[in-house]
Amino acid sequence: MTSDGLPDDTTPHLTSEALLQRLADLGLAAETIHHPPVHTVEEAMPFWATLDALHTKNLLLKDAKDQLWLIAAPTDRVIDLKSLPARIGSKRVSFAKEELLFATLGVRQGAVSPFALVNDRAKRVRLVLDAALMAAPRVAFHPLANTATTAVTTDGLRAFLGSLGVEPHIVALDAALVETAS
């Protein structure tokens, strides 16, 4: 561990419990619900009904130059991978392979979230947050495991990211990226 409690190259990735403790140590109010493992937004929705927050979907993408992008957006946002790169200052993007996801963020598919940046030791991942998330009073993400969901205030999310030295790119991932029916 480093002096600020983050994993270094010789320590394993933080666990969900360690992440929740880190949020508490930062003085951030977090509400966590536990549920069976979920792999999709649709599977999670029945459990999220008891947690008052803007729920999210999160994608780890890789571009042609091997830059990693973590995209967080409201669950109802449809992300068009063809037009997204122009909005985030990249070229063609595709989904990162699960091995890269685990090696970089210490999570498996279905558990990706901005909280996982706590495990990004090499600072390889650029975070893109949909502007709608930053306008919400509370946002919810998986805390490094798809068996729980944790809500924090938007200010709490900013404080957490600041503690990691992460400056998110805030982008309106709305009409220009929503696939329209023809």
TrEMBL record:
Q: Which domain of life is it from?
A: Bacteria
Family matches, as InterPro entries? ProX/PRXD1 (IPR040285), YbaK/aa-tRNA-synt-asso_dom_sf (IPR036754), YbaK/aa-tRNA-synth-assoc-dom (IPR007214)
Q: Which UniProt keywords apply?
A: Aminoacyl-tRNA synthetase, Ligase
Q: Which residues form the YbaK/aminoacyl-tRNA synthetase-associated domain?
A: 35-159
List the GO molecular function terms.
Answer: aminoacyl-tRNA deacylase activity; aminoacyl-tRNA ligase activity
Which PANTHER family does this UniProt record tie to the protein? Answer: PROLYL-TRNA SYNTHETASE ASSOCIATED DOMAIN-CONTAINING PROTEIN 1-RELATED, YBAK DOMAIN-CONTAINING PROTEIN
Q: Which family does it belong to?
A: Belongs to the PRORSD1 family.
Protein name as catalogued = Prolyl-tRNA synthetase associated domain-containing protein
What organism is the protein native to?
A: Azospirillum griseum
Tell me the organism's taxonomic lineage. Bacteria, Pseudomonadati, Pseudomonadota, Alphaproteobacteria, Rhodospirillales
